[in-house]
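queue> holo job accepted (zinc ion)
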Amino acid sequence: MPLDSQVEPMTFVSRSFKDYLNDEVERLLPEYATIAQLLAQSDGLLVTKVYDVVDYTSKQLKHKLPLVGLSFGCQQLRAPAITFVGGIHGIERIGSQVILSYLHTLVERAKWDSNFKHLLTQVRFNFLPVINPGGMAKGTRANDNGVDLMRNSPVDAKEKVPWLVGGQEFSRRLPWYRGKNGLERENLFLVNFLKTECLPRPFNLVIDCHSGFGLNDRIWIPYAYRRRPPKKVASYFALYQLWQQTYPHNNYIFEPQSKHYITHGDLWDHIAKVVKYEFQKPFLSLTLEMGSWNWVKKRPRQLFSYKGLFNPDVEHRWNRVQRRHLVLFDFLTQATISYLNWLPNKKNKKSLRHSAVNHWYR
Ligand SMILES: [Zn+2]
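queue> job finished
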């Protein structure tokens, strides 16, 4: 399949986000209620657009749910953009909640913090907090069609993948199903959003928030489809060094995803290829994997609930997770604004690549 055969020019749905809300939808997706609340408190600063509406028709879910993007900050295309993504896996709703918490803080700062008001003239913020509303409403990893959105892209792994986990085409009744009809609507929304709202800009950084892997918080760089370094490994390494030098006591593990497993159909691999073929501008995507086993370790009872494997279910721990990533998110925002000061140049690109390969791939 050609890489972009399915990408259509972005159209918006003319109805507003709030038109899709009602008591039942807010019960299924409290994150939508949070978005409505943020819109009300933002004094018109937040721009919300409904990019698509999915008419979910499965037995357990019969609702029309909007695919929504929120933006604020500098509209001009000269400004770089930072994009926060959450809820690709419906069960990992802590990812959505963490970025909505951050958005709450930004909306409040925009009211009184003069430095932050100035910062808003230099950068575009995008938030896509609920990519997979069907999965979130049902409490499943996959979307309402049973497709795992992180196994759904046309990119095939170059190496042997772990059985099932690496993506499978046997059945939607098994986990990690890739789907058979190309990109699902939710993924088309994400890809189209990035193409139209982000890629025309001179620099983009994206962070996609997940949970469920191990005891530590991890920041992953692409690829998932092969073990060899990505084309932009020097840029990823420059960002990693900047983070380590600025926050030496941080306890994230910053590494290639391929260190842990190889998969088919990774969406960020697909987007990296779209960027490579159609846009020459720097675009970096990171995945934040929150170490949810920590929450389980402290509360073994969570082992017996599927939701509990991916989300903290004690209030003080939930609160701690909301605070935990603020420094990282602020850092990534500042790095986006100052991208020209740290991205590799002709002189240091080769040595950065060399260091990256030594550090991550040997
Ligand atoms: Zn995930």
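queue> The chain is about 35% helix and 15% strand.
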